[in-house]
Write a structure and sequence with these properties.
It holds the Pfam family zf-BED. Helices cover 44% and strands 11% of the residues. It is of the alpha+beta class.
Length: 100
């Protein structure tokens, strides 16, 4: 997360949600966050907080894309499945997803 500071971001991005999004300088339109899974661009102004970012990555559409990528990773034998499991654990810890 320190890379954002080096790229000119004035604050350290502390929230776990930033491991799922990439900070983008939006120029005149303000800072943006790009979802690493579906590519959707969201606002990232500090006054907006992170609740809308959490809602996005836990949305049904984005979760479906995440799970699809994880299923593909099983065939490839890479570490993506472990990464998705970490995302899920982060969401449970944040209280944004219940264990069923």
């Amino acid at each position: 997360m320190s890379q954002q500071i080096a790229d000119g971001h004035p604050r350290k991005l502390k929230s776990l949600v930033w491991s799922h999004l990439e900070y983008k300088d939006g120029g005149g339109g303000g800072p943006r966050a790009e979802c690493k899974y579906c590519g959707k661009i969201l606002t990232a102004r500090h006054v907006d907080g992170t609740s809308h970012l959490w809602r996005h990555i836990t949305s049904a559409k984005c979760m479906e894309i995440q799970q699809g990528k994880a299923a593909g990773a099983v065939d490839e034998g890479n570490e993506f499945v472990e990464y998705i499991n970490q995302i899920y654990d982060d969401l449970v810890a944040k209280g944004l997803h219940s264990i069923q």
